[in-house]
Amino acid sequence: MPALYLAATVLLVMAGFFVSRGRAIAVGGAKLSQLHSLPVYHGLYTAALVLVPMLLVYAIGTPVVGWLAEHNALSNFPSESITDPLARSTLLREITNLIAGVTSGESSEATRSAAVSFTETHVLGQRVILATGIVVGFAAGFWGTNKVALRFRARDRFEYIVQVLLFLCAAIAVLTTFGILFSVAGESYRFFFDPAIIGRPGVFDFLFGTEWNPQAAMRADQGEIATAYGFIPLLAGTLLITVIAILVAGPLGLLSAIYLAEFASPKVRAIFKPVLEILAGIPTVVLGFFAALTVAPLLRGAGETIGLDIASESALAAGLVMGMMIIPFISSLSDDVINAVPQAMRDGAYALGATQAETIRQVVLPAALPGIVAAFMLAISRAIGETMIVVMAAGLAANLTLNPLHAVTTITVQIKTILVGDQEFDSAKTLAAFALGLVLFFITLFLNYIALRIVRKYQEQYD
Amino acid sequence: MTDIGFTSQGIAPRRTDTRSVAAKARLKARYRSNTRFRWYGISALAIASAFLVILITDIFTKGMPAFWQHSIVADVAVTEDIVDPDGKRDPSAILGADYMALARTALAAAVPGIEGRTQKKQLNDLLSSGAADELRTEVAAHPEMIGKTVKANFLLSDTADLYLKGDGTPIINSAPSLGTATPSATAGEITVLTTDTDFAAALVEVKKDIQSKAAALSAEADRLQRLNSGTTADRIAELRKDAKSLEARLSNPNSEEVLDGKIASHLVEINGGLVKVTKLASSVVTGDVLIPLKSTEAAAPGQWQLITYATPETDRSISDRGVAFLEHLRSNGHVEKQFNWRFFTAGDSREAELAGVRGAIVGSLLTLFVTMIICLPIGVLAAIYLEQFAPKNRLTDLIDININNLAAVPSIVFGLLGLAVFLNFFGLPRSAPLVGGLVLALLVLPTIIITSRAALRAVPPSVQEAALGIGASKQQAIFHHVLPLAMPGIMTGTIIGMAHALGETAPLLMIGMVAFIVDVPKGFTESATVLPVQIYLWSDLPEPAFQSKTAAAIIVLLTVLFVMNGAAIWLRKKFERRW
Fold first, then answer.
1. Bridge partners of B285?
2. pTM for this structure?
3. Cα separation of A229 and A211, whole Å?
């Protein structure tokens, strides 16, 4: 049925286009220049007029028909089994299975008649949609074709439609943010305040609790299972790994950027810029593999020879590799801001007799400092939100420790661990992942926002 | 002016000291500091590059072996009573036959004289569970093969394959034997007597080995005692006891030694058979026959020898018997190494030697297709709007800031969005490339918008002004003139965005693309996995063969990314215009 509708739409749109264009050519006659708009715009305008309502009919019609079909099918059952959401979804699954032909065992009389009415409503609805679409399309096409005239401003109208389309595309980015906010915040709200959720913590317990031990009570009769949703150990673990990463990437990235921007000849730049770009392009799952299977055993071995007990999932291994991941990040952003410092400032310092290193340290870096700070903040936000390296190289146990040789866990690891596999959407455990996601979103949003503000301000200063 | 007045009044001008020794030293120090600073930069770059080189070398050394596979080549009789007992040449009956039985028979013929259940099982364990697949398809395609004896390839299991790739044990042949050796039997537990002290050197080595083991145990006990964490007291006592018992065995340098799996395995190769030594004395050994001897005749000096498998049996994944069988097969020319095409043509499997990346590659392609279809038009149109049409007001400012922020939101958050919106709200299927593509499209959309805007901005305004000047509308000017000129830049940005999407793992884990899926996906709504997720799944498996497979899959992924980025650079170089 969707294919049929699609075919009808394409046909009508094309018909609208060609008829209108032909008509415009006929109206223009020998002197086409008398037309306000080119014939093709008349065609496009009509085509758009046909396409938009037809798409709308389908987009609105399909869910309505689906709802009606369900409603009609369920009316075969007693009302108490429909009000209960769980029984309702079970019934619906039985019906769809019956229609698809995958049934286990004998289905009841009610289910069969429900399936019949479901199919009937569905088929009827689809036909109504198709008919409505074709009628609407014809009407719009007829209307558009009739509009064709010498003075008709088809181009202006069509361009207005295009501009609306452009705006809608730009708005999708905003919609994504709202989507994230509403979906994640909605589930988080349930996590904290929905009375039906067993074992949910208070907001305060979540934000300042020092124990993390999510357990899902599978059935109601399992009774009380000791759960703890204290966020602090996860935050500590995340920050510990982030600090290690920044300690590695900060100096290396910044010094690389300084060298590339100030000292390196174009030839050296041409070699090392791509090297850093390649490093930036390596998928994090590859870095995670490297961290877990090469760096961690290496560190453990090195620790044993000097008598240190290093956990095989130590924060150090994950942090080191994550540091390597964010070197190109820091270096390319810092490179940009260092290059943005006006040459006149350097020339002034050289004129006073300063060496290159003195110029960089006392003139260029202070001038570029806001941008460098922003680069570091973006790098920190990247490190906090990084998932695969820590999933593969860091641990699962929520230890509250600052020792980089021990195993710690992070926010992203916990989100991944909770949500991979089968989930029950009504358990505190699953919803906890969304609460973690919300916190993660706000931490990174805060860092990004500040950093971007700094960068903007800084750009204005030297432009 | 005032300065001149001062000097004319006789006040000496302030002069910079540049000639004294101290000043010269200062200058030198400043120059040195300059050089030092330079070197900091060079070393930082060197460290970053070294990391990249180490990473790639590590992946390649781990992954390259997985592109080759060993199999056994043997003559196999395709007997009718096994393959087609009804004799009807029914294709489905031929496909359903037990070809493993044929494979086992062929293997038994290649290693003759193996008796007993456990021995036979150990021999058959060398074969992969999919060893006979190749023969099966071949016979099904050519039923005339039935009843004939043909040469066939049987895939080896992952442990056997790993051993043949060198991940087993070094094999050391001892010095030529001096005495005449006599075995007591051809099978079972036998003794081998030699007329000289041929085993004395080996005995010394074994004792040394035991000594160093005892020392290592004591050292470990000392270390634990130093750490003194309380709970380890039992463990320390146990270690000390083990060390003592080992040392006791060393008291008599000539006493015979019982060899266990913790020290190097010793074997005697005699009369075409192989004996695994269990008790070692200077001129006599007792052992189990691994490969039956041809006779009990005395072997002359130089006609038999002592062999050592240097890695102890407990430290490797393959048993002594497995090594013996494989060495026997190898020396008889039954082992063949081939390029592992299966890796590219098969889906996932629980058996390392049968697993391939085809399913993951197809899944990645389907997912990327969805991503591309969605985010390229939307991204370019959004960029055109923001760069050319958007009025400068708060709303556009908000969109602008929002896009930049979105580009830095952690990818796992997009996974949460996909889970809550696409799966739970819209009820789209889990693990499907459609949903994966949607999530990745939202993820890379900001990147594409930002790079497209930069490409549009790089086209000089004069192009647009010229078009407007001859009467084009703004949209005509943009779509006919500015956009084609910006296209190379947009394509470069899109390819880089797609490469990013291809390497992304975390959000896809959230929407359930982590299931174990054997079949190659055929549609956008079927369950599928993608290459990075496959890498993640394999890296979690305990079998060492999967480690190598993981690295091989990474090589495939990196190669694709390299090609994509290379294409982006090529595009940029070829079409880049300086205005």
1. B192, B280
2. 0.86
3. 7
